[in-house]
Amino acid sequence: MTAPTAFGLVFDGRGKPHVNQRRIPTVHFSTPATDAFVDAVSVQAVRSALFDAGYYNYAGLGRGLGRAEFVLRHNHDLDALAAAITMAEAAIPAVREARLAAAAEASERKAAQLLETRARVGAIAERVLSTIPWAIQTSEGLALLREAVTLETWTEAYGTDVANEAHGAERVVAQTRKRLRVPVGIEMGNVRDPVVSAAALEAVGYVSALDGDWALHRNKSGWGKPSSAVGHVLAAEDALDEIHASHALRILRIHRRQLPAALAARLFAHAAVAA
């Protein structure tokens, strides 16, 4: 008996009967699942006809399976097998057309999703750059957001990177505001004077204006990394309450040498904590 040739499947031991582990008389072949065979058996009616006529697979179906083993029963009905193969070959073009249509639809859907991501995440990146650039934690992150707002075409992975960077900056602000709810106890006695609070607001604004690199590089101008977020958040306030002023006073002690002498005098003249 000679096994039929169809779907590009190649038989081993052609025409030699064998009994497999399930006691099914077979003609064995071991071959990667071809596209034609996978397309054919994706149609339930075709799959049933082929398997009823003699094909049998116990290693799984699908693309990328490698050398999945297929067998053909030795005592198959040649007429039924030929009819099933004809049925399968007739079904393959429609299966492939449907797959191409589905792939095109998926591609269009993905393109639309990328456009939506570009618009939504791009807007967040623009807002971060225009309002809280100092909250970006690395020079690489800053470069990424600057590039993102000018780049028209994004990939999915690129959009994820931009979103992570932008949301990371927003989290820095949120976490900083949460920290600012707790007073710096050792400074509270120094900020009850409205003159000190007003001077603290002026001073954080002064140092923030010097912070052109947003503490991304080590230098003697503007805030250092540990103080940057607190300094910029406070500098954006219209006025400082005592709790906020206590935080301002603490970080300004670190950076007091950058302050004009007159401003430093107003700020620290009555401060009880040693500088």
Assess the beta-strand content as a share of residues: 5-15%
Number of strands: 4
Q: What about the largest sheet?
A: 4 strands, antiparallel
Distance between the termini: 99 Å
How many domains? The number is: 3
Give the rounded overall mean pLDDT: 84
Assign the structural class, choosing from mainly alpha, mainly beta, alpha/beta, alpha+beta, or little secondary structure.
Answer: mainly alpha
Poorly predicted ranges (pLDDT <50, ≥5 residues)?
58-68
Helical residues, percent: 55-70%
Instruction: Report strand order across the widest sheet.
Output: 1-2-4-3
- Looking at the structure, what is the overall shape? rod-shaped
Q: What's the helix count?
A: 9
SSE string: EEHHEEHHHHHHH
Radius of gyration: 36 Å
What does this structure look like?
This protein has 275 residues and is mostly helical. It has three domains: 18-76, no CATH class; 106-179, no CATH class; 185-268, no CATH class. It has helices spanning 35-41, 44-53, 78-131, 139-148, 156-179, 194-210, 225-235, 242-254, 261-268; strands spanning 18-19, 25-30, 55-57, 69-73. It has a four-stranded antiparallel β-sheet with strand order 1-2-4-3. Helix 3 (78-131) crosses helix 5, helix 6 (194-210) packs across helix 8 (242-254) and helix 6 (194-210) runs antiparallel to helix 9. It is rod-shaped, with a radius of gyration of 36 Å. The chain starts with 17 loop residues before the first strand and ends in a 7-residue tail after the last helix. Mean pLDDT is 84; it is low at 58-68.
